[in-house]
Amino acid sequence: MKPFIYAIGDVHGKYDLFEKLVKEYDPLLHQLVLIGDLNDRGSKTKECFLLGMGLVKETGAIYLRGNHEEYFLDFLKEPEDWYEPYLRNGGKETIESLLHTGATEEYSPTEIAMMIRSRYSELIDFLCERPLYYEWKNYIFVHAGVDLSKKDWHQTSPHDFIWIREAFHEGENQTGKTIVFGHTITPMLHGDMETTDLWKKDQKIGIDGGAVFGGSMHGVIFNEKGIVQDIEYQNNEGPWQGI
């Protein structure tokens, strides 16, 4: 077992920041954990997906399923039903990254899904296999959180592992473990819609600094005692956009 975990927060197509954080990764020392949501909203989903898949296959990284990976897979299964909600939640950028600019205007949802399935079958199979959480020593790494009302957090539903918000943030953590998560941006958790620092409360650590919205992306190194280093890269392409 490696002595450190290196966890990277939600990427959302921000390949430039993702690539910078990956350069800090030492596969000999770090177990890399990608917290999920590599796709949607940002312009370079294809590059982020392929880098994430490569890190898993080449270095043994852990890539957790986020709700946006789930959105993408749901769209591919039922394109006509999921097309509009998927586009509203950043799917247009993913479709155009995987195909080409203007693809959403040129083709029907069914045609788009067929082309993506045809061209990216390996990637789709890979995304379908992503785990919902990763345990390491006294830590739980998960995309959104766990159901703290359960006596055993392992009984959390697949939906809650990738979607839960307030019930987890406000619930009492009696798991005996520190829970590291993304999904909800830290400016929202801090309550000011400005602070992109890590959010820490009740042995819960939120690491999604809202990079795609003009915030930051975190790469956090842990040992068994706590945080060793927080590497934070700001999105300097524009001002904070809110949600």
Keywords, please?
five-stranded mixed β-sheet; 243 residues; alpha/beta; 38% helix
Can you give a write-up of this model?
- It is a single chain.
- With 243 residues, the protein is of the alpha/beta class.
- The protein has a single domain, classed as Purple Acid Phosphatase, chain A, domain 2 (4-Layer Sandwich).
- Helices cover 38% and strands 19% of the residues.
- It contains 10 helices and 10 strands.
- It has helices spanning 15-22, 45-59, 67-77, 79-98, 103-106, 109-119, 121-128, 158-163, 166-170, 186-190; strands at 4-8, 30-34, 62-63, 133-136, 139-142, 178-181, 199-201, 204-206, 216-223, 226-234.
- The chain has a 5-stranded mixed sheet with strand order 3-2-1-9-10, covered by helices on one side.
- A hairpin with a 2-residue loop joins strand 9 and strand 10.
- Helix 3 (67-77) packs across helix 4 and helix 4 (79-98) packs across helix 6 (109-119).
- The longest helix is centred in the middle third of the chain and has 20 residues, at 79-98.
- It starts with a strand and ends in a 9-residue tail after the last strand.
- The model has no long low-confidence stretch (mean pLDDT 96).
